[in-house]
Structures are given as C-alpha cells and as structure tokens.
Batch of 3 targets.
Target 1
Amino acid sequence: MRRRNAAVVQGAFHATPVFVAKAEGAVIEDVDGNRMIDFAGGIGCLNTGHRAPAVVEAVRRQLDRFLHTSFNVLPYEGYVRLAERLNRLAPGAFPKKTLLVNSGAEAVENAIKFARCYTKRPSILCFDDAFHGRTYMAMALTSKTHPYKAGFEPFPSDVYRVPFAYCFRCAYSLQYPSCETYCARHIEDAFKRVVAAESVAAVIFEPIMGEGGFITPPPEFFPILAEICRKHGILLIADEVQTGFARTGALFACEHIGVVPDLLVTAKSLSGGLPLAAITGRVEIMDAPGVGAVGGTFGGNPAACEAALAVLDVIEKDRLCDQAILLGERFRKRAAEWQKRWELVGEIRGLGAMQALELVRSRQTREPAELETKQISQYCYEHGLITITAGTYGNVIRLLMPLVIRNAQMDEGLDVLESALQAVCDRKKEAASQPV
Ligand SMILES: Cc1ncc(COP(=O)(O)O)c(C=O)c1O
C-alpha cells in the first residue's frame, strides 16, 4: 500500500485495501492467502465469474493467433461475429449494427455522437442520480458532483437533467402510486421550461441506476418516458453497462421495462473481465456517421471479442438469467428479515441479482446513513466479503456478485453482511446509551 500510494494517483480510488493474488468463480484470494467471497465482481464485470473456464480458453486460443491489428487497419472475424450476435440479441426486431470500443464511458460518448449525427439535434436529456462514466461527455451526463464532477468544469454543453423515478426520495415529495408517475409525465414540462423538445436528440437512461444506488423505477415510468420521446422524435439510449448480460434476470434489463431502445450501450460483463464495450442500434442511426468518423486504435480488441463470444455462450448454456432470479430471491428473503430487525435498513430494491439496501438513520426522516454504510463495507472485507457501496448519499450497499456463485458461498457472504449490520447497529445502540 505504501508503494501504491507513492506511485499511483489518489484519484484512482479503491473500496478496500485488499491486494488480490488470484480469483476463481466468486472467490478471491489476497496476497496474504486470505480467502474472500466477491459480492462486487469488479463493479459488475464478472457475471460469468472470475476466470470462467470457457472465457479463459477462448482468450488463450486467440493469444496463439494474433493480439492486435487495429480493426481500423486489418479487420478480423471475431469482431464481426460479436457484432452479428449483439445485433441479434439486442432488443428490437429491426436491422441493427454495432460499434465496439474499450470502456463504458467511451461507448456512452459514441452513443451521443450517433444520436446527434443522425437527428441533427444538439441536446441530450439525462437524469438526476445518473452515472455514465468519467470522460467529459460522460461526466456531463453524470449527476453526482463529488467526487465525479467537482473541479473538472466546464463540461460539454446542451446536456439537460430531469428528476428520475427515485420513489424512496421523490423529487416532488409525492407517493407512488398516488403520484400517477408524475416524474415521467413532468418531462413534457421540461420541454417548456428547460429545453425545446425539437432540440433534443436523445434521452439517455439506465433501466436500473447503478452508481446512483440501484434505483428501480415503477413499471409505468419507462413506457411513459418512451411514449413522450417517440412523440417528439427523441431517440432512446439505454445505458445497460451495469444492468446488462443477465444481471437483472434477463439478458438486458430493457426486456423488463417494456421499452425498446434505439441505441443500446453495453460494457462491463460483456467480456468477462477484459476491456470491451459496444453500441448497438438501429442501422440508419449507426450508419449516420461517415467512413472513419467513429472507432479507435484498440476498439474491439481480438482477445476481448473472443472473450465476449464465450461469455454469451456461458450465459445461455448455464442459464445465468434464471440463476440471477434465484440469487435475487435468496437475498430478498434474508434482507426482509433484516428490515424487520433493524431501522437502518430503509429500503430493499432491485431486480434479479441486481439488489441493494438503502441505509437510513431513521425510517421517518430517511436521513442517509453514509458513515454506517462505510462501516458495514469495512466490516465485510475484514471478515472475508468484498462489497461495494453506491448512491448519491453513499448510503447504499449493492450486490454485484458473479452469477455463478454457489449457494453455500452466497449464504456465507450473506452471513457476513448480516453480522456487519448487527455489529454496526449494536455500536450505534451502545453509543446512544452512553452518558453525554
Ligand atoms: C451505467 C454505467 N454507464 C457507464 C459506466 C462507465 O463505464 P466505464 O467505467 O467502463 O467507463 C458505468 C460504470 O460504472 C456505469 O455503471
């Protein structure tokens, strides 16, 4: 850690001080030989697990053939095969094309390029609590100021933000369902007060917000949003960087929300741990930019493409969508007990294996329990479980474990999480009973 601090920038944060030596499935071994259950999956990149054998084998085969030519110089079949497969799998029964890039943020940047180039409109609509990455356009689309945006201004222009369906902390202080999904309908109002509808190229949304705290809108939200956008000729960009590839119990979370996006942005679990991202969309939008207008040196690296093809096979063969649903149910059952026991557990939310706990100091005031969330995360890694937090207030514990985790490993992880909640609640009770 001393060498890390001397050589690596402090901005490249890590949630734990654990240095990894090796990993397999849902288990990590650190450099001191400690065994840990992984509920973070490298921030949701390992739905198929650490070193999934089929992925390792596919990469190994590619290592013996060639490692890089740049698709912009010499194309190769793996890139094309992956594009064909993503075109087939992405929601929507219309002709599609795909561009491969290196990271979620780069894919978001390119989705905006496609949308603007096709519609010839400048503006982009995005949401409170959204996270789309750390490059400049992605930062502009991201909501949380600290640590993501503060100090990096100015951002690209023509980005407009509206409230999301965060029912636990409704921007309009309304209650679902009596609100009749006011937040979705109110977007029409933004076209009067904030930006003209005919200036908006696209709205970019996460079906379930990732870094924002696994915010899961009610079922009416996205269909209303989609209807408003269609009426005004505004494209729908689904950012499924975190929700994609079986995490929510469907290959893409869009399948749950009743919306077919014009452009689908994917990354993270696409390639089982190698850097790769994709933009898949309607052919007429994807072919709007001219020859040479999109791409890059490393986009669609040959080994990463082979890894992604193997990932898609594993998801299908091992029925990881079904597995995600079972894991989610397993968590929910335990979490419901925790909520009965501890005031701290304010809300349990998510879909499939994309589940979270929002922690509060009081159920009545919903004061975010940021410090307690940090303490729980620390307790977990000190007791053999890697977790990560989320949320604009830093008070959400999110679950992104590999979907190949065994039931016994899942239960072991949940046991640690339960004892962490117990320890932190006991500590609070003790502190409250101390004379001032
Ligand atoms: C929804 C979403 N979009 C975009 C990104 C950015 O991806 P990357 O970190 O690969 O640039 C993330 C990363 O967490 C994300 O969760």
Note: The longest helix spans residues 407-433.
Target 2
Amino acid sequence: MSALLDGIRSIVGPTGLIIGPQELAPYATDWRKRYLGKPLAVVRPASTAEVAQVVRACLDARTAIVPQGGNTGLCGAATPDASGTQIVLNLSRMNRVREVDARNNTMTAEAGCVLAKLQGAAEEAGRLFPLSLAAEGSCEIGGNLSTNAGGTAVLRYGNARELVLGLEVVLPSGEVWEGLRGLRKDNTGYDLKQLFIGAEGTLGVITAAVLKLFPLPKSHATAVVALQSPEKALALLERVLEACGERLTGFELFSDFCLSLVLKHFSETAAPFPHRFPHYVLMELSDTQSGEGIRALIESMLEAALEEKNILDAAVAQSETQSRTFWSLREFISEAQAHEGSNIKHDVSIPISRISEFIATTDAELERAHRGVRMVTFGHLGDGNLHYNVSAPEGVVPDVFVKNTAAINRLVHDSVARFGGSISAEHGLGQLKREEIRRYKSSLELELMRKIKRTVDPHGIMNPGKVL
Ligand SMILES: Cc1cc2nc3c(=O)[nH]c(=O)nc-3n(C[C@H](O)[C@H](O)[C@H](O)COP(=O)(O)OP(=O)(O)OC[C@H]3O[C@@H](n4cnc5c(N)ncnc54)[C@H](O)[C@@H]3O)c2cc1C
C-alpha cells in the first residue's frame, strides 16, 4: 500500500494527500455521524488529469475509491468502509467555474464548486442557477449531480438531473469521457450523462459539468399559510398553480410538531402567527418582472382562500429579511430534529394526488403499531416528496426508540409501495437503503443496474458497497 500512496503523492503533491489519523477523521464519517469508516488515505486532486492518474493508480492496485464532495449526503454514500483499504477521493480542490456563457444560458463548473458559489456566479452574470437546498453552503455540484439532488425549486426547474447539459467524467479505467456539451438538443444515441447522474459515485468520478442557467427573477413573494390538513394544502397547490403557473417555485409543507422543534432549538426563530395551527405551507413565487405585482397576486389569492375557509391564516413577507425568516422555519427542521435526538427517517415520494391519503393511512398504521409516536412530517409537497420521520413517543428515550427502525421502515416503505411511490425521493440509496431497495425494485431492474455496473466498472473499484 505504501507504493500506492507514494505513487499518489507524486501525482497530487503532498498537499493533495492526507494520511494522518486526526486529519482523516472529518472525511471518515457522514453528516449524520451514522457511519464511521477508516480510509487508507484522503486524496485531494486539483485537476481532471490528476483525478485520472489517481484512478489509474488505484485500478492497478485494485484499491477501491470513494468519491466525496461536501460530505453532506444523508445515506452514507460518501463514507468509506472500516477496512482501512479504501481511498476517499475528495473533489473540493477542483473548484473553478471554467466558463459562464450567458447567451447560451450555461455555466461550466468543476465538481468541487460549492453550490452557493455557483448560485453567486450565475447571479453575477445576471442569470439564475436554480438548484437550492439547505446544505448549499457546503455541498458541491459533483455531489449534487451524483445524488441527483432535489431541494426547494424542483417544482419549477426540476431535479439536478434536469439542470445538466454535459459532463466530464473520469471512468473507472482512468479514461476521461469529455462530454462537456452545452447543447439543448443532441439525439445521437444513448444519453450517457444520465448514467452518472444519481449513480452516487459507483460508475465514475464527475469532474466537471455544463449546467443550465435561467433568467434571473426580479421580484419574489414568500408566504406562510396555516392549514387544517395536507389535503387542504393540496387544494391550495392546485389553486396557486392555476393562478400563477411557473411563477410558483416552492411549495413546502411542515406540521406544527416540526415548527415546535425549530422554535425549541433555534432561539432566534419566531412562530409566524399568534396562534398555532395543525399544518403550514411555505410558498415562494418569483417573476422576471420587477415591482409589486407578484406580491399583489399572492395576497389576493390568499385572501380569497381565507374567505372561502380553505386556509386558516396567511402571512406574506413584507421584506427580504422577513422572507429569510420564513424560510428559516423550514430550513432549520433537519437540524432541529438532530438536536432533539435520533428519529427514524424516510425520504419518500408519492404521486401528488395521493399524498394526503398516504399520510392519513400511514400515520394511522404507525399509531396502531407504535402508540404515541410523534410524526415529523415535512417536505417538498409540490414535488410529492415527503420527509416522513418518526420520533419517539413522549417520555421514550430516542436511542431506545430507534431499535424499532427495521419494523417501522417496513411499515412505511410497504405503504409507500402500495401508494405507487419511491422509498428514496432525493437522498439516494448509499449504504443506508442498499438492502432495502431489493424489496421494492423489480429483479429485472436490479439486474440491469448490475449489468451496467459490471460493464463500466468491471473490477468494482468505484464506491463498492453503495447503491447495489
Ligand atoms: C441540512 C441538509 C439539508 C439537505 N437538504 C437536501 C434537499 O433538500 N434535497 C436533497 O436532494 N438533498 C438534501 N440534502 C442531502 C445532501 O446535501 C445532498 O445529497 C447533496 O447533493 C450532497 O452533495 P455533497 O457534495 O455533500 O455530496 P457527498 O455527500 O460528498 O457525496 C454524495 C454522493 O455523491 C458521490 N460523489 C460526490 N462527489 C462526486 C463526484 N465528483 N463524482 C462522483 N461521485 C461523487 C459520493 O460518492 C456519494 O455517493 C441535505 C443535507 C443536509 C445536511
């Protein structure tokens, strides 16, 4: 192994190789600290050529590679195993925006660019890069593409997959696939880039991407709406889509229990209304026209919904600061749960039309099987994506409660399947759901995936033990 490390040091230089146990520690565990690995080394290449040489060296030594970006993934997909033989290939030093072509509405960026930096680079060019998620200050575009990240603007702009026109990928053979095309039309056979998007680093290392840009909105309106039930939230979604069409960019649902966790753990937050209600929707509209039109539209729509008693209350942000305050209620939910203690998490998607029935049915099944459980239900309702998390009943120690994980996963995921949904909407499979997916995907689909893996990565060096 020391010959391999010497070889890698000669490729990336001493600053690109980390081997000290203390320095390795942050790369060896995941954001939730659920998995703890033991990497042989962390390699931080600074160019595509360096990545290619490192991959070739690892292939020659039959050493497994775990690609890693911002390490904010939630399925343990960027964490090495505990064997002490795997290399973590961290892309963070590859952080250049190679080109912004405003006229083509594209941006070419290296894999290690932090998402927030890309949003900023697009804005400087008078454009929007719409991918947006609570981890955007740390996650990197290579990781976003490899997980096909979703986030808060999927409703209008699609998942990460829909925001990519071209890719540059280092294959498990060490060859570089130069697919950095900025074309919106290219029907020349199989769309190879789609293989690598959402592959969680199991088929190659994404080193750069051509990303789609959009007109920069000039006005926004944000509102928090109080509602009786998810069913009422769906009715509101339908109404807003009819009235506002593509100007609706975000439609997020959260329950009052989620709000109570945020208020408890983030002292700087405040409840949006003097009274509490069962559910809330956070809604964002944006328009390429400047002025107050969009706010007037949302206000008139919500007034009508209030008069018809479809909603219980509504607050429209009067300033950018208030809009940020509203968004923080939604964005702090993940961390607030972490402060509260472990719970049993599910990232599921359901056809939007069936989502309230799913919640009612599954809540009831859970209550029957595990009396008193508290549901942390929130998510991107406009995309049919729920974070459907199950917390311990009052008085039960969270660490004791999570011993029910297997039984609760079974109940929830079987219900998801009955409703025609998916057990991973946006976080991927990683190692967390690698076994679980075998119950829900057909053997034909799984075998096709295995065949692709064997063809692209015949020696199985690319992120083994993840996805499949
Ligand atoms: C607070 C919080 C909120 C979040 N909210 C959302 C959300 O709303 N929507 C959502 O979709 N996700 C969300 N996530 C999950 C996470 O941020 C995303 O999955 C993100 O896309 C991961 O990016 P990363 O750079 O951190 O990737 P990592 O965690 O480093 O890696 C994720 C996967 O991608 C692979 N990978 C990384 N870089 C490369 C590369 N260059 N080439 C090949 N493979 C690579 C890794 O091997 C691993 O399989 C959230 C996470 C946190 C902590």
Note: The mean pLDDT is 96.
Target 3
Amino acid sequence: MGLGRRRACARTICGVPVLTPTSLDDALAALVETPGALVLAGGTDVMVEVNEARRLMVDDETVVAVGQLAELHGWVHDPVAGTLRLGAATTYAELEQEPLASLVPALAQAARTVGSPQIRNVATIGGNLATCSPAGDGLPVLAALGATVELRGTGGTRHLPVAAFMTGVKQTARQPGELITAVTVPVLDGWQGYAKVGVRNAMVIAIAGACLAVDVPSRSVRLALGSVAPTVVRATSAEAFAEGAVEWSTNAVSDADATTFGELAAEAAKPIDDHRASAAYRRHAVAVLSRRLLRRAFPHRLA
Ligand SMILES: Cc1cc2nc3c(=O)[nH]c(=O)nc-3n(C[C@H](O)[C@H](O)[C@H](O)COP(=O)(O)OP(=O)(O)OC[C@H]3O[C@@H](n4cnc5c(N)ncnc54)[C@H](O)[C@@H]3O)c2cc1C
C-alpha cells in the first residue's frame, strides 16, 4: 500500500477497499494511486449504480469516500464580489435552508424538488454536477446563474464555466484524478425561480425543468432548460426577446410577449421521446414552464 493510501484510512466493506481520507491532499493522492477509483459523496447516484451492478464489479475497484474532506464542506458569501462559493459536499437540505435559500432562491426551489428528505439530507451539489444527468435538478439553476465549477487535481486547480463543464449526457470535462471541490454562483439582484414537470409531484425525475433568473442591474433575463437536451441548454433567443419585451420600471410584460417567450424557449429544446415523455410533450412543457416563470418574474400585465 502506497503513501497516499496509508494516509487515507482504508477498510474493506463487502470485499471492496474503501478509503476515507480526511484531507483533500490525501484524497487526491489516493486518486492518483488508484486510477479509476469510484468517488463516493452522498452515494444517492452511486448506490443506484452499485445496485444495478454497473459499478464495483471490476476486480479491485476502490472507493474513495469524500464525505470527511473539510475542504468540500461549507460555503462562503462574498458580498463585495457578489458571489457565493458552495463546497461540493453542500447538501440539498442545506441549500433549502436560510441563509442560502435567500441568496440563491432558485437553487433552494430546485433542491426542494429533489427526491425525499432522506435523499436531500445526504445528496450533494457536487454529486449532481459529476453525474451530469440531463435531468439533474441543480444544473439548470447553475447554468442560468452562470456558475463556475472548481476542480482540483494534484497538478492544481481549474475553474470552468458550468456550460463548459457539462459536455454530454452524463459526460463532463472532469479529468481522471480530479475532484470537484466547489461551485461558485453569482448572487444576482432580481427574481429567480425553478419549475419542473414530472409524472407526479414528489420523488420524481424531471420530464422538463426550467430556471429563470433576472439580474436587474444588467437588465438581463437568463433561462436554462433541463431534461430536454443532452445537457442543460440556455434559451438565448428567448432571453434576448424578454430583455426587450419587459417593462423594467414596472416589472411588467404582456401576455402575448410571455407566450412568445415560451415558444422561443421551446425552440431551444432538443428533446427526445423516451419512456417518461414524448419530445412533443417536453417542448410543450418547456413553453408552459418558461411562460409561467416569466410571468412570476414580471407579475404586472402590459396591455
Ligand atoms: C430516490 C432518489 C431520488 C432522486 N431524485 C432526484 C431528483 O429529484 N433530482 C435530481 O437531480 N437527482 C435526484 N436523484 C439523484 C441524486 O440524488 C443526485 O444526483 C445527487 O445530487 C447526487 O449526489 P451524491 O452526493 O449522492 O452523489 P454520489 O452518488 O455520491 O456521486 C454521484 C457521482 O458523482 C461523483 N462525485 C461525487 N462527488 C464528487 C466530487 N466532489 N468530485 C468528483 N466526483 C464526485 C461520483 O463518483 C459519482 O459518479 C435521486 C436519487 C435517488 C436515489
């Protein structure tokens, strides 16, 4: 056993070597020593894969559990920079609560839609990013806000815009040996919200999801869509349309323009037919969700 693995507390669970490093340096050393090791945070995606026997079937596959890394826990609000840095181990339960819920309300709303309280108590934002499911509820919010993903390897730290981090269905720009250490989101001045359609109201994977975030000082409207393309997409035509259509001084938009906004959002979607919904239904859902979100952001009606 090498230096990194000796430092990282090792034990065997059901024949699988499990390392529980207590410092980020030890965790990164363990990842170098055991290339292809399975990183474990809250385990809510990993254990599904294990139960479906897609992981831990390879001889000598090692688990590196990151839950004890202090460097991945906690958050820092920098009011001067207007940013919030969330450690990768931040759970949905934490995101739901104050003060984070007031700093990034859309992320709190998305968090409240994830799984059950038991899931939200352990599932992390870093795990959601690393899994990079098109249906990951945190991801449209991070995309709409323009978040930056922080990755750390033994060679140093990289920062990637979340749009560059997400490269495909369950594919990311994370390199072997790297850990997601944090995600930094701008704290915007304006209304923001997340909405999702599923086959029922709780414990449901999104058929379509949308996050709308307004930044009043820059007069910008951001709209990101989930579950309707290989990765989360920004609906840039809809965003540009909204910025011209809304009356910023009175927080108003006309019903006709809100409808057009929804239609433009639907055009940005590249959905597929699958067992959850047809592509046509997903496009319709995007139009409805986006229109409603814009209406909530700009509640006064222009004639
Ligand atoms: C019953 C149930 C309901 C669910 N409902 C929802 C839902 O409504 N919405 C939703 O979005 N998701 C849902 N999920 C999926 C899951 O809860 C989320 O994706 C969650 O954010 C994963 O976080 P985790 O900490 O559990 O990750 P883990 O399962 O521990 O890890 C997930 C992936 O990320 C990697 N990883 C974890 N942390 C890091 C890190 N710091 N650096 C690098 N790689 C890392 C792991 O190797 C693994 O590949 C559900 C899961 C279950 C079991």
Note: The longest helix spans residues 279-297.
